[in-house]
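input
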Amino acid sequence: MTETCKVCGKEYKAITLTHLKTHGLNMEEYESIEVKKEKDSFDVRKEEKEKVIPIEKEKVTITPEETTEKIFGKPETNVDKPLKDFLTEFGVTEKELRSIIRTYKDGKPLDVIQDIKRKTEYGENSAESLKDNDKVETKQLAIADALVHKHGFKVEKVTSNPKIWYLHK
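output
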């Protein structure tokens, strides 16, 4: 007989305190975790039957744009953030953004290597401004990686939900 861990979903002969420590939990905390019941195919089919997208009574057809708007709401048109701030936040240049948009509109897959390079550069630039701190918390792997490998920081701990790296010199 096996037991499935409520945190990672792996199966073990028994859930031990040693295993729970890998999740940063004690037995009492672990036992207080409630596991949601997996939906079986009957539940899923029932939910799908109950899904209804309301349409206006006078209209017989609905455009894809109207369907998208009903599902996601109206797109945000009044954005207060200047483009320069947006580009800085995501670590891309205007030229890179134009390239990404053209690629997306042409239906081509985005270049993963280009994305990784962009994230790495963003992490290195952000780490540069944080390198003088004694302690740093970040949700960005690229920043944590740059602080460790380029500025001598050590990882104190990493939380999983949300994923946060705690680093110190």
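quick obs: The first strand starts at residue 3 and ends at 4.
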